[in-house]
Amino acid sequence: MSAARGEDRRGAMAWLHRHPCWAFVLLGLSFLVFGAGTVNLALLLQLNFKLWLDAGWQAAMDGALRQLLELLASGYAAMAAYIVFKCCERALVERLTRRGHQD
After folding, report:
1. Which of 3, 19, 89, 99 is deepest in the core (most CB within 10 A)?
2. Against a cut of 0.85, is the pTM above it?
3. How many CB atoms lie within 10 A of CB 98?
4. Which of 34, 14, 24 is nearest to 92 (CA)?
5. Coil, strand or helix: which one is 92?
6. What is residue 1's predicted lDDT score, i.e. its pLDDT?
7. Is-contact 93 39, C-beta < 8 A?
8. What pLDDT shows up at residue 39?
9. What is the pLDDT of residues 29-82, one digit of tens each?
10. Which residue, 101, 99, 83, 100, is CA-closest to 16?
11. In angstroms, rounded to a whole number, what is the distance separating the alpha carbons of residues 19 and 14?
12. Burial grade of 16 (CB within 10 A; 0-12, 13-18, 19 or more)
């Protein structure tokens, strides 16, 4: 298998390598989404668990279950944004540190 064929199979990474300006824009956006998704997330989860311990299932009936699910969804969205950030970072770093190849 040639290196070019291996690069074609990476899809999104290949696109990020070909479009460094868009990779940089996406890097910044994913950084902002990750930051917004994680602000106070640990504190809110801790308070939600404390409410569950204090009030038991009554907390679930009062909306703590819905809040917990929303917090978990927010955490997974932040994690997805972090993965996008790391992919963009890798593509840009590889492009900047590549030797002997001109694009």
Report:
1. 89
2. no
3. 11
4. 24
5. helix
6. 41
7. no
8. 85
9. 999 999 988 888 888 989 988 988 898 888 888 888 899 899 999 999 999 999
10. 83
11. 9
12. buried
User: Are the beta carbons of 38 and 82 closer than 8 angstroms?
Assistant: no
DSSP single-letter state for residue 9:
T
Note whether 16 and 94 are within 8 A (CB): no
Residue keyed to tokens 């990474």: 13
DSSP string covering 11-67: THHHHHHH-HHHHHHHHHHHHHHHHHHHTTHHHHHHHHHHHHHHHTHHHHHTTHHHH
Q: What is the DSSP letter of 100?
A: S
pLDDT band at 2 (very low <50, low <70, confident <90, very high): very low
Q: Write out the two tokens for 49.
A: 């668990």
